[in-house]
From TrEMBL:
Gene3D superfamilies attached to this UniProt entry: SGNH hydrolase (3.40.50.1110)
Signal peptide, first to last residue: 1-20
Recorded superkingdom: Bacteria
Taxonomic source organism: Mucilaginibacter sabulilitoris
Transmembrane parts of this sequence: none
Domain SGNH hydrolase-type esterase: 74-229
Keyword set, alphabetical order: Hydrolase, Signal
Name assigned to this protein: SGNH/GDSL hydrolase family protein
Pfam families: Lipase_GDSL_2
UniProt GO MF annotations: hydrolase activity
Annotated InterPro entries: Ester_Hydrolysis_Enzymes, SGNH_hydro, SGNH_hydro_sf
Length: 243
């Protein structure tokens, strides 16, 4: 074998070695690539596994789904016993606005086959960073959820939102009058459509139209005492709805 042949063979072997190393690197990169959820704007992935494990309602089971944002999500963390011994399914996701709840409505409400749904929506829309949200648009999303529920024989409990004087993370928005105005629309719509109104505003409100200091963590989210008050009025609303 002459020197030229040996040189060509060495070049070929070197090239093959580089190719093999690159192939291994590419395989490793594929294996470590994380799934991208940026297209999941409504966070449908949040409860997908929990929903799969749930199964069909048992005979006689009167499921109630709580659909909302951080108010509901924190409830099961601070007072888990409220949900543990009842057929209540908490489907709150912190920070969500009403169009996200609407997108989740099929997966996190309809497909779970509840007897009733408690819808708490609007505050995060009002606290949002954009200037395009109006109470009318919030109501459009609420109305769409109600219509979907009725189509699937799910009874609806609409919530008058909790009082908020100011958002700690978005100061100066003056949300109190906006929430009061939204609650008036929710109350009127509930009456017009024979829906149960669950009033979280009245038992928690102080003289500034914010939450009573002894019932809240930050002026927006209730503490354990606040949730106990919410639990009492919620049970009354559910009993009335499912009678």
């Amino acid at each position: 074998m002459n020197k030229l042949t040996l040189l060509l063979l060495a070049v070929l072997l070197s090239g093959f070695s580089v190719y093999a190393q690159d192939s291994l690197k590419n395989k490793a990169a594929v294996q470590t690539l994380k799934e991208d959820f940026k297209d999941d704007w409504a966070a449908l992935s949040h409860y997908v596994e929990e929903n799969k494990q749930l199964g069909e309602p048992k005979p006689g089971e009167k499921r109630v789904v709580f659909l909302g944002s951080s108010i509901f999500e924190r409830w099961k963390v601070l007072v888990p016993e409220f949900f543990n011994d009842r057929p209540y399914l908490d489907r709150g996701i912190s920070g969500q606005i009403s169009p996200q709840l609407l997108i989740r409505f099929r997966q996190d409400v309809i497909d779970l086959k509840p007897k009733a749904v408690v819808i708490l929506a609007g505050s995060n829309d009002i606290a949002g960073n954009t200037g395009h949200v109006t109470n009318e648009r919030i109501m459009d999303n609420i109305k769409s959820m109600v219509e979907l529920a009725k189509l699937h024989q799910i009874k609806v409990i609409l919530c008058a939102y909790l009082p908020v004087f100011d958002y700690p993370w978005r100061k100066g928005l003056e949300p109190a009058p906006k929430i009061i105005a939204l609650n008036k629309l929710i109350k009127a719509y509930s009456a017009e459509n024979d829906l149960t109104l669950l009033d979280y505003f009245t038992p928690l409100v102080d003289e500034r139209n914010g939450q009573k200091a002894e019932l809240t963590i930050d002026g927006v989210h209730p503490n354990v005492a606040g949730y106990k008050i919410m639990a009492a009025v919620t049970e009354q609303a559910i009993k009335k709805t499912l009678k």
